[in-house]
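Inverse folding, one chain.
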């Protein structure tokens, strides 16, 4: 209500994302509280939020949740309500069944529905209005991800005084694919409302620049776009790669704790002490190449090139988007394959695949990373893939082998991983065998080099680099206007 203290306060730094960084917890007795969700974005932005009087605008994760803004651990939280209908059309529909498959190389066919688009426009406007309402004069607003691509322009139209950043966490597709989208021009215009548009890879930024050239009158020169504005000098927009990362130190610290190391040993014993433990950790998503990984593993067992007593695959597939049909189909397909492989090869004392369709606490993830001799990241397309970086950060012992798809953004940085093309099943099988027989010396040399990268380029460095670029564009604009 209007009387609630603080609802009309204004903020100098505002983050806008589909999901808020907090989850609502309802106790058995009905009392409600908010718990910070453990994501990397929150960790990275929390210090900046605290020292800059920051606000976070986003959805609380449940339908029709109309609650007043509140303060949580030094961050001002501004909930944006979504109805069941918004969730179905804007979120599960346009975001997860149109944009997600389109931006991931149409691995699954995207669905185009005009009512979904209308809902996307309306919900983006709601987020833009909420952000505009809490932003102080000249504030910095940082919009996150593909669910909110129209927000930068909507915000600029309403509040030309703001400095606006946008970061795309998923790939930006090549124009030949992007051009399928019936609303392709509107999305480019929406993004160009920002001063800085960040992507995971250099290739994503150049795909975007090409779409700008094909669909607008703006000109592009490497990372700078000159946006034509009628009656005014062109506006300068920077579009470039800012590869995201993790809180590497905290992951390493977690893995170093004695109880996590003890748990890693326990996991190994529980699996019957195989010579080699391989691990996959993914949201159950068709972009992650889980099926390709299982196929390669199953064939190696069938060919007799590995034995079930010697090699176990642990697959954590955390539940995801369970109301979208493509995800229901994928789950059936993966679980059928896991069942077949286990049925064909497991013995009374050794399972082939230890499969888990649920999420685990961070501690258990760290223990799994320590227990895994080989980490398999076989994504068919992935913006970055933080799991690859977490595995490296956890391995303070300089051991363990990362098998990494070249279609994941992380492969631009982790050059000493065993890089693979997941579509090439024979190549993947050979790489797995190479990993199984790799010498300790080779393993540590590779891991040391990757650790250097991940520890130096952490998520704090990512956000600083983005926000510094944003500030420099802002200064440039001020000086142009003053001249
Ligand atoms: C998108 C882009 C980009 C997973 N299962 C459990 C669990 N996780 C954690 C992992 C990791 C995170 O979730 C997943 O991040 P990824 O980067 O691997 O993948 P997406 O969810 O698809 O994220 C991606 C990212 O945004 C950031 O920009 O890298 O490309 O698709 O941190 O550890 N964590 C816990 N239990 C689980 O069961 N605790």
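Residues assigned per position:
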């Amino acid at each position: 209500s209007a009387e609630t203290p603080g609802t009309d306060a204004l903020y100098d730094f505002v983050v806008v994302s589909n999901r808020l960084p907090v989850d609502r917890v309802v106790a058995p007795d009905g009392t409600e509280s908010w718990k910070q969700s453990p994501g990397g974005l929150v960790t990275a932005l929390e210090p900046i939020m605290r020292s800059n009087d920051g606000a976070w605008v986003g959805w609380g994760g449940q339908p029709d949740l109309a609650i007043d803004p509140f303060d949580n651990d030094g961050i001002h939280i501004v909930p944006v309500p979504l109805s069941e209908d918004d969730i179905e059309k804007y979120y599960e529909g346009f975001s997860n069944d149109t944009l997600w498959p389109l931006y991931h190389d149409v691995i699954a066919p995207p669905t185009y529905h005009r009512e979904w688009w209308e809902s996307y426009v309306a919900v983006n406007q709601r987020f833009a209005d909420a952000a505009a309402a809490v932003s102080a004069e000249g504030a910095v607003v940082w919009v996150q991800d593909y669910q909110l691509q129209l927000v930068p322009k909507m915000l600029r139209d309403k509040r030309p005084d703001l400095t606006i950043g946008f970061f795309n966490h998923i790939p930006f597709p090549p124009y030949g694919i992007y051009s399928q989208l019936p609303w392709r021009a509107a999305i480019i215009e929406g993004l160009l409302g920002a001063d800085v548009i960040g992507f995971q890879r250099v290739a994503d930024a150049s795909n975007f620049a090409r779409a700008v050239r094909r669909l607008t009158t703006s000109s592009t020169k490497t990372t700078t776009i000159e946006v034509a504005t009628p009656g005014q000098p062109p506006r300068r927009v920077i579009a470039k790669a800012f590869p995201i990362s993790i809180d590497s130190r905290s992951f390493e610290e977690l893995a170093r704790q004695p109880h996590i190391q003890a748990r890693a040993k326990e996991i190994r014993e529980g699996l019957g002490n195989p010579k080699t433990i391989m691990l996959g950790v993914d949201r159950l998503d068709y972009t992650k190449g889980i099926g390709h990984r299982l196929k390669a593993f199953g064939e190696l067992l069938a060919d007799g090139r590995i034995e079930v007593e010697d090699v176990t695959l642990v697959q954590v597939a955390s539940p995801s988007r369970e109301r979208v049909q493509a995800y229901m189909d994928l789950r059936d397909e993966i679980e059928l394959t896991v069942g077949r492989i286990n049925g064909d090869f497991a013995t009374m004392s050794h399972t082939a695949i230890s499969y888990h369709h649920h999420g685990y606490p961070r501690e258990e993830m760290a223990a799994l990373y320590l227990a895994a001799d080989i980490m398999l990241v076989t994504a068919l397309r992935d913006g970055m893939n933080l799991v690859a970086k977490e595995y490296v950060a956890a391995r303070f012992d300089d051991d363990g082998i990362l098998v990494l798809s070249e279609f994941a953004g992380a492969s631009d940085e982790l050059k000493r991983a065993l890089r693979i093309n997941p579509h090439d099943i024979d190549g993947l099988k050979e790489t797995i065998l190479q990993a199984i027989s790799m010498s300790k010396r080779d393993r540590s040399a590779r891991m040391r080099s990757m650790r250097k990268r991940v520890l130096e380029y952490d998520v704090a460095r990512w956000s600083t680099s983005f926000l510094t670029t944003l500030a420099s564009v802002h200064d440039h604009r001020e000086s142009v206007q003053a001249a």
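The chain has a mean pLDDT of 94. The longest strand covers residues 135-144.
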